[in-house]
Amino acid sequence: MKLATTIGDVSQFVDTFEEAVRFYKDTGFKHLDFNFLNVSENQKKQFLSENWKECIINAKTAADELGFDFVQAHAPTCIMRGPEMKKSIEIMLRCIETCGILKIENLVIHSGCYAEFKYPEGKNENHKANEAFLRALIPTLEKFNVNILFENTTAKHIDGCYFPITGDDLNDFVSFMNHPNFGTVWDVGHAHLDNLNHKDEIVKMKNTLRGVHIHDNFATKDLHLAPFMGTVDFENVIEGLLNIDYSGYFTFETDGFFDFKILGYEEKRIPQFIELKKDSLKLLYKIGKALLSKHNIFDE
Questions:
Q1: How far is CA 204 from each of CA 169, 238, 265, rounded to the nearest angstrom?
Q2: Model-level pTM?
Q3: How many Cα atoms within 13 Å fall on the side-chain side of residue 217?
């Protein structure tokens, strides 16, 4: 199994996607997740500009130069119904085309959730509320050979609203869409907040699971820490992945690991802290390698 991590983890340190890619030089990582969700203000402006392809091509050129590839992506927050839906669709179509340019097969998305549809009885109504937005993406998904992966959240995020939490919830969403370009991604940290058994849930998704988000917490708050810095049972996670012969990437989403934004340093970009962030990425890679090597499944 190959390690990957998201370039969104370094958005506070950079102004362009190219800079984000170059940040991973000499960290050990070779496989990157292209993140449209956690971006700097300058990255966002560039991506929404008329010359948006330039910033994507520059990132690809940097990746090619450094021997990196892009293996997964994360969509921005989308408004999936109402007057703002059209604009969100336009942005998502741009994200999908970006995935095509970067040869990314899987794009993770958070589905919309609405106060009037409660968990779990509001499942069908919630699916229908998301349907028009998602079906509008299908021709472009097919054109660029990109899949949309639905991500689980936690009951601690949604205040009673319907949103997929379990493996069955995610499978139901895929079944509802009934199209080969939809699948699932299992977010380990979110599941831990609801004390779910990762192996059991992963086995349920044997036929739909195409990606994972790996991070840690203490089952109280969504901290996005590196493994072994919280209480997630990663042995249980790996047992599940082995059980279904998972062939995807072991993708970190650890933006809370050495995150100094909470200290008010986000805009200062203190050189010593930037160097420490680089060191934390090197450590993250070593942690992932050790975890997978323990089970003899680590692959460069």
A1: 10, 14, 43
A2: 0.96
A3: 22
